Amino acid sequence: MENLADKKKAILESTLDLIKENGFHGTPMSMVAKHANVAAGTIYHYFDSKETLICQLFSYVKGRIMDALFEQDDESLDFRVRFFRVWRGLYEFYINNLNSLVFFEQFVNSPYNKKLPKPEHDTFKPLHDFFTLGIEQEYLRPVNPKILTVLAHGSILTAAKVRMAGKIELQEPELEQIIEILWDGMALKKK
């Protein structure tokens, strides 16, 4: 018999797939139940409403993003090398998990985002902390780390969306150029 945690994960993953294809409003709970191969009552056992499901899905996706963010990180390496690895790790996550990319973009621009408790809004605190370290160690310009987070994450999302849309073929040299340009804009210029 399937474990309860497995059913909850199946519901979350099914919702993620369906939202990618149909958006929030085009994904009723009945469709989620059918796609996840569970009874509608099972969904309501875990989530008391569609809003709760979508907000918990955001937490689930955010956790996966955070795992991917620092999966390739190695604190013993030079900060610049770490920066390149963190950027690439998150880019690869979005390329390999397009449903998470589409969901994240929809969620942050939706009314659901406003319903999250304050701590949930600090989605990229680990990235802010990473940039704070870079500033403290004088690798990065002394600016608000949230600005650096917006610049880095925005470039990752845009690169992934461009690749997903097939508008520009991003091969290894182009990815290196993107990261290099971003680094050059953020790095502290040593005299």
| First-last Cα distance | 65 Å
Fraction of residues in H or I helices: over 70%
Compute the CA-based radius of gyration.
Answer: 19 Å
Main sheet attributes: strand count, strand direction, barrel closure? none
CATH superfamily of the largest domain: Tetracycline Repressor, domain 2
How big a fraction of the residues is strand?
A: under 5%
Class computed from helices, strands and strand pairing: mainly alpha
Mean pLDDT: 91
CATH topology of the largest domain: Tetracycline Repressor, domain 2
Overall body shape:
elongated
List the helices and strands and how they pair.
Elements: H1 4-22, H2 29-36, H3 40-46, H4 50-69, H5 79-96, H6 98-108, H7 111-114, H8 118-121, H9 125-136, H10 145-165, H11 172-186
Please explain how this structure is put together.
Helix 1 (4-22) packs across helix 4 (50-69), helix 5 (79-96) packs across helix 6 and helix 5 packs across helix 11. The model has no long low-confidence stretch (mean pLDDT 91). The protein is built from 11 helices and no strands. It has 2 domains: 1-48, Homeodomain-like (Arc Repressor Mutant, subunit A, Orthogonal Bundle); 59-186, Tetracycline Repressor, domain 2 (Orthogonal Bundle). The chain has helices at 4-22, 29-36, 40-46, 50-69, 79-96, 98-108, 111-114, 118-121, 125-136, 145-165, 172-186. The chain is an all-alpha fold and 191 residues long. Helix content is 73%, strand content 0%. The termini are far apart.
